[in-house]
Design a protein that fits this description.
heterodimer; A: 111 residues; mainly beta; 6-stranded mixed sheet; 5-stranded antiparallel sheet; B: 115 residues; 7-stranded mixed sheet; 11 strands
Chain lengths: 111, 115
């Protein structure tokens, strides 16, 4: 089983739609969680951290379910500019704070 | 503030040749990472440095890959000899603290094609 698993997509949605991505992780000792965004042929950039209580940043909401070992990202009112690959990232404290990236979920927002 | 600098941006070599990539992290960032990203996959950690010491190199193919960060600032990643499966983007990232404490800042990457 992969350490971090994501549905690769692509998710094709119309502008204005709400879309949700899930990510599962295998290491129950994982400490911190993030969503990164990667535009085509660009480097990954931090979108948001994921907190146990859930957190929101504008149109983006991230949630963590430790019992089921999954993380979610919800995007409301999708914009064309949201088209990108969304990478789920998990930190395992053992071994020097190693960040493990998922394969990414590709989102395409269409007119 | 200047970002993470990497060079070269693109490199095409034949299998069994060697190649080196250079990275200069954001000034003051103690932690430096090299990731390999194969097309369609997420970045995979190759090696992590804290200042000039290696924190994690468990996924570095040490028979052909080597990396150093001699003065705790810039870093070089070398592949010798290259194989076809090494074709990927090599991403350098830095962070002011450990990975779990905050975000990683990535460079634009060095895209390697092995023919």
């Amino acid at each position: 089983r992969k350490e971090v698993e994501q549905d690769p997509g692509p998710f094709n949605v119309p502008e204005g739609a709400t879309v949700a991505f899930n990510c599962t992780y295998s290491n129950s000792a994982s400490q911190s969680f993030f969503w990164y965004r990667q535009d085509c042929r660009k480097e990954p950039k931090l979108l948001m951290s994921v907190y146990s209580s859930g957190n929101e940043d504008g149109r983006f909401t991230a949630q963590l379910n430790r019992a089921s070992q999954y993380i979610s990202l919800l995007i409301r009112d999708s914009k064309l500019s949201d088209s990108a690959t969304y990478l789920c990232v998990v930190n395992h404290r053992g071994g020097g704070n190693k960040l493990t990236f998922g394969t990414g979920t590709q989102l395409k927002v269409e007119l | 503030e200047a970002g993470v600098a990497q060079s070269p941006r693109y490199k095409i070599i034949e299998k069994r040749q060697s190649v080196a990539f250079w990275c200069n992290p954001i000034s003051g960032h103690a932690t430096l990472y090299w990731y390999q990203q194969i097309l369609g996959q997420g970045p995979k950690l190759l090696i992590q440095f804290q200042n000039n010491g290696v924190v994690d190199d468990s996924q570095l193919p040490k028979d052909r890959f080597s990396a150093e960060r001699l003065k705790g600032v810039d870093s070089t990643l070398k592949i010798q000899p290259a194989k076809l499966e090494d074709s990927a983007v090599y991403l350098c990232a830095s962070s002011p603290r450990g990975a779990g404490a905050g975000e990683l800042f990535f460079g634009e990457g060095s895209r390697l094609t092995v023919l």
